[in-house]
Amino acid sequence: MQISSGMRVNNASDNAAYWSIATTMRSETKALSAVEDSIGLARAIVDVTYSGLDNVRESLVRIRNLVITARTLPAATANNFENLSPNPVNSDSKFAQTQLAKVDSEINQLLASMYSTIKSSSFGGVNLLWNKENGRGIDDFTHDFVVDYNSGRVETLKIDQYALTLFNEDYQNHQSGPTFLETGILDSSDVVYLEGTSASHGLNLFNAAYGIGIVYFQEQHPLTSPAQPNILLQLEKSIVRHGAEREATYANFLDVFEEKINKIQDGLAYLGSTQSSLTRYAELVTSRGETYEKGVGRLVDADMDASSTRLKALQAQQQLASQSLQIANNNASTILQLFR
After folding, report:
1. How far apart are CA 257 and CA 217, in angstroms?
2. Does residue 104 fall inside a structural domain?
3. How far apart are CA 330 and CA 326, in angstroms?
4. Which of 52, 67, 105, 314 is deepest in the core (most CB within 10 A)?
């Protein structure tokens, strides 16, 4: 029986204690297999998020460098604008003739690329960089992944979306109604002080924090299609309108980008730490699963060498008995003479 099944404890009647232990450990092993799947999903989501976030960081560094370049170009004057009234989405035909406008156009392209990267950094329907328009704040979203299971106790690893969200589509989206104060790293929540004045300038990369609540690169606008942030156009217009000190104001403007880059780098460090944790959990779960399988094998698996030896010995005995009986049958008369 052991030779055919490969097991010395095949059911509870063979050894109730060993069978019970083995059954429990097999259940644990199956649970660990499910945990491995959960860890694999978490690692895939984190890897996609890390790649997208690093791509955004590179684009933001290029934008910062372009702002540095713009700072060295000839300043705009009142003659370089159709009007000096603030408008977060309008283009300006006069400003379009300046060297600054060419830099602004390149920045718009980088921002559009960042927007696309943020939207596409998704795996299994989970996007840690983008909070969709859904009437819920960023704090309402948590992502818990099962990373361990032991004797009925489930251990999870929580990924903090608030530390990673770049773009909260609900942020001051007046068209949807409610206004959420929770902002992503790249949402329009930054104030640039116009040096030499008491005024300030709002930096809007993806969400316009006033007016009709336009979301750049996503929505159409009556005056500009598609809506573009034109951050240099807006900054230069504010400087001219308020008579601000250009050099010092640009320094404040660059400080905002440095802060955003630092926050993104913090997010990458957080993801890197999470990746390391997931790797350790994966190794731990795999190792424990292999140990469980070996332990179960020691309890219930048959010793095939010993069982094979016993089987061969039994077969030899049966063969000898059969041969003896055959000899006796063939020489029955000779054996009878021995009793005369």
Report:
1. 20
2. yes
3. 6
4. 52
